[in-house]
Write a structure and sequence with these properties.
Layout (H helix, E strand, L loop, with lengths): L1 H30 L10 H5 L4 H21 L18 E7 L4 E2 L5 E2 L3 H10 L7 E7 L8 H6 L5 E3 L12 H20 L5 E6 L2 E3 L3 H13 L1 E4 L2 E4 L5 E4 L15 H30 L7 H22 L1 H4 L11 E4 L7 E5 H13 L7 H12 L2 E6 L3 E3 L3 E2 L4 E2 L9
Parallel strand pairs: 1-4, 1-6, 4-5, 10-13
Antiparallel strand pairs: 2-3, 6-12, 7-14, 8-9, 10-12, 11-13, 15-16
Helix pairs in contact: 1-9, 3-4, 6-11, 8-9
Length: about 425
């Protein structure tokens, strides 16, 4: 009787030790700097520094590195004098306005978002089949210091040839201007006659290796797709590809798309089974001493381990767990995209032309660009896919539409 009791109590104690070690020791140590984790601690991450000041410091460091990198270039960029005879695979357009902002102390601050974004792309050493163009859509082109500085490194085209003095815009008028600016940049990138177009807002910063991954996605997921180990032709026409999704929308079940919810569930189950198998194997190999246990007891511990790993995955959050996919370009995936946001969108040429025509017919609507994209998707049978993990990050704290600094979600800028 005593032996049976010990056989029962030992697995319960082991399970209890597993949960205490996982949720009270391991995860708090590993996750205190991960913002979307339930263990995130602002104090441990930033010390006593104000989040806004911390984000400003991070941005200033990035800005300084970008400027140093650009000034260290010994020869002009090949994109300044492109080979007119070469085919253009990808054209990258940066939509930019003057982001200089007045701080609370009255000083003017230039965040250098465009400089950081362009330098991040140039750092990737784009191929001869890639064209870059900065679309300076500010009403006073010369006030956009980043665009003026970058004109020595990449082509810069200004929507307004001279200063256009206008009264402060309402939010509705700002949305109309945003549409006109997007139309202008689409036209500029289409002038290269590329196969694909990438439109970036000036505060979309490429992650390391982004262009190589985009090329891989074009070759293996858009133009062609894998069937087994063989690449076959694909038919991804009338499709938008979002290369950035707000991180809070990538979190567990923060979506209304049924397919994405299903994928999230499969991710959790897969992590649970994989983690539970590893824990059970280690437990059996090193800790399963003493009286022999029944298969039911071992299976019970496996189920407990699976549940533990699922709960741990939820505690860490999907946003951070996705980072393992950056190990290789082959691990990046495409899901049904959510409705929000257009900081980085990849188009096939025909899709870009269709979207341009649609924007021109709705240019008097007072709605944001992603709203126009949503209506095109709903009414004309287009599709949207999101590439995960994000290939770009959103570093802009200052909103050019709302004319103010976004002090919420500071974690998104650091």
């Amino acid at each position: 009787m005593m032996q049976r009791c010990m056989i029962f109590r030992r697995p319960v104690c082991d399970a209890l030790v597993l949960y205490v070690a996982m949720f009270c020791v391991v995860l708090p140590i590993l996750c205190h700097r991960l913002h979307y984790s339930i263990y995130y601690s602002q104090t441990l991450h930033m010390g006593r520094t104000d989040p806004f000041a911390y984000a400003m410091k991070v941005n200033n460091d990035r800005k300084k590195l970008a400027q140093t990198s650009l000034l260290s270039r010994t020869s002009p960029s090949s994109h300044m004098v492109p080979d007119v005879d070469s085919n253009v695979k990808l054209a990258v357009g940066f939509v930019t306005v003057n982001r200089q902002v007045k701080m609370r102390d009255g000083s003017l601050y230039s965040p250098g978002y465009l400089m950081q974004s362009v330098e991040a792309i140039l750092r990737e050493n784009p191929s001869s089949e890639t064209r870059l163009v900065v679309c300076n859509v500010d009403s006073d082109p010369s006030s956009n210091a980043d665009a003026v500085f970058l004109s020595s490194f990449v082509p810069v085209r200004s929507k307004n040839l001279k200063r256009n003095t206008t009264a402060p815009l309402t939010l509705e008028d700002s949305f109309k201007k945003e549409r006109e600016d997007y139309i202008y940049c689409l036209n500029q990138t289409l002038s290269f006659d590329p196969e694909f177009i990438l439109i970036l807002e000036d505060d979309a910063l490429a992650t390391p290796g982004a262009l190589g991954i985009i090329d891989h996605i074009i070759r293996t997921k858009i133009e062609k797709k894998y069937r087994g180990f063989e690449l076959i032709k694909n038919n991804y026409t009338k499709t938008f590809f979002k290369l950035f999704t707000p991180t809070y929308m990538q979190n567990d079940f923060h979506t209304t798309k049924p397919k994405r919810i299903f994928v999230h569930i499969l991710d959790l189950i897969g992590m649970g089974i994989l983690g539970g198998t590893m824990i059970s194997f280690v437990h059996t190999l090193f800790f399963n001493k003493g009286p022999k246990r029944s298969y039911a007891t071992m299976y019970g511990f496996f189920v407990v381990s699976v549940v533990c790993c699922i709960l741990a995955a939820l505690a860490v959050s999907r946003v951070h767990l996705m980072e393992w996919r950056r190990i290789s370009k082959h691990f990046f995936v495409m899901f049904q995209a959510d409705n929000c946001c257009t900081p980085a969108v990849l188009y096939r040429k025909d899709t870009a032309e269709d979207f341009l025509k649609y924007l021109e017919t709705t240019r008097h609507n007072a709605s944001p660009i992603d709203g126009d994209m949503n209506r095109l998707v709903m009414s004309h049978g287009y599709k949207r896919f999101a590439v995960e993990p994000n290939l770009f990050s959103h570093i802009g704290m200052y909103s050019s539409l709302q004319k103010k600094i976004n002090r919420n979600f500071m974690h998104g800028f650091v």
